[in-house]
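Here is the promised in-class demo. Please do not try to memorize the tokens; focus on the logic of going from shape to residues.
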């Protein structure tokens, strides 16, 4: 597998050449059930006709003109996102890390614009993941990701995820904001409780901080609500969105209330590609489909079905699996055997999944799956578990 591509990934030696809904077909003709979906990106599966049509039509008209000019497709997308959320304003970029980074800048700028130039530090939580840029690495403080990249950028104070006392104790006169994933993804599937998010909201309000949710993975319908924090009823001031939003076309979004974004005036931030016509055509098709009547109810229903099946599996195969976790179609099981090996065996049996943390097998299928796909996935997991250790 020696290629000219910089070897920053531990790649699996499979290439896919086509896809249909939740299935991927490899170059050797083998068909896989895709419960990874490009790491929660292909929200509507592969080759969804509405998204394909929207991108094709836009590709024939116009791709990119830059943010020097108005972009009607971007305005339509911003209207859609604002209509479905706490936010008043949306800024468009191209990835999750860029969205988180933009949100961090917005938080600092808010404090500066409201006369608090000394408030610039951000409180983050253990087990989080916010991307691979210098600032987002410093925010998450994962030692594996930081190794060899010099001293982490200053300005981030980390507290244990889920612990309100330590959070309160970490607030200083320099604190600007708190950033948290409403459902942690890369760090294992860990939903924040509504009580925890409410406590963060209270601390933020008490000390004049912004509450910033990283919904890069859990947003855009993944949890069965358009935004994962809706399950708690606790709204943030700022939110980062990416992965699923354009169904596989690169896009990130910073969403915020008008008050939180008051410092983000002309010239304060930018992104050359951000929200171009082609990206917004894809995103509008995805967002409009997910917001269509009944779509999210269906995600909740199928997610509940999947979770019940996972609980049965975990109970029946307690030698391999620990417990089932998650919300909607952002699910995972803890593993009592090495999770990477489990992912490999599962893939060899025809099911694509993705690991998380040290001991999770994670399931992020397209939001369009049906019961039959869940049954197919569970049958593979059950077979792999039943044969565990038998083939040496
Ligand atoms: C994937 C992810 C990111 C980073 O997104 P990229 O597009 O890889 O930069 C940030 N936050 C969360 C919660 C993520 O899951």
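The designed amino acids, position by position:
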């Amino acid at each position: 597998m020696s290629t000219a591509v910089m070897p920053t990934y531990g790649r699996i030696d499979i290439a896919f050449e086509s896809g249909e809904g939740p299935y991927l077909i490899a170059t050797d003709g083998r068909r896989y059930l895709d419960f990874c979906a490009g790491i929660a990106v292909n929200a509507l599966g592969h080759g969804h006709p509405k998204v394909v049509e929207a991108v094709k039509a836009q590709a024939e008209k116009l791709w990119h003109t830059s943010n020097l000019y108005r972009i009607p497709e971007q305005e339509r997308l911003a209207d859609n996102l604002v209509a479905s959320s706490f936010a008043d304003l949306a800024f468009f970029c191209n990835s999750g890390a860029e969205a988180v980074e933009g949100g961090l800048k917005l938080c600092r700028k808010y404090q500066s614009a409201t006369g608090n130039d000394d408030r610039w530090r951000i409180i983050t939580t253990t087990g989080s993941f916010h991307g691979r840029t210098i600032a987002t690495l410093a925010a998450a403080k994962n030692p594996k990701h930081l190794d060899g990249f010099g001293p982490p950028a200053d300005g981030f104070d980390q507290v244990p995820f889920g612990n309100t006392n330590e959070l309160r104790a970490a607030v200083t006169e320099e604190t600007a904001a708190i950033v948290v994933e409403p459902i942690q993804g890369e760090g294992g599937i860990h939903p924040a409780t509504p009580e925890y998010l409410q406590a963060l909201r209270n601390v933020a309000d008490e000390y004049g901080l912004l509450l910033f949710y990283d919904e890069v993975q859990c947003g855009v319908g993944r949890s069965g609500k358009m935004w994962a924090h809706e399950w708690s009823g606790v709204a943030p001031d700022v939110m980062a969105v990416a992965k699923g939003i354009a169904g596989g076309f690169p896009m990130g979004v910073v969403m915020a209330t008008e008050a939180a974004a008051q410092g983000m005036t002309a010239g304060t931030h930018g992104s050359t590609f951000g929200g171009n016509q082609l990206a917004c055509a894809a995103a509008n098709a995805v967002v409009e489909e997910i917001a269509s009547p009944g779509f999210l109810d269906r995600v909740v229903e199928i997610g509940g079905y999947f979770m019940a099946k996972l609980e049965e599996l975990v109970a029946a195969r307690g030698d391999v699996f620990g417990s089932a976790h998650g919300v909607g179609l952002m699910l995972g099981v803890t593993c009592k055997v090495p999770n990477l090996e489990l992912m490999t065996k599962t893939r060899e049996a025809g099911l694509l999944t993705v690991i998380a943390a040290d001991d999770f097998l994670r399931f992020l299928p397209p939001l369009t799956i049906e019961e039959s796909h869940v049954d197919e996935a569970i049958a593979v997991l059950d077979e792999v578990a039943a044969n565990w250790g038998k083939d040496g």
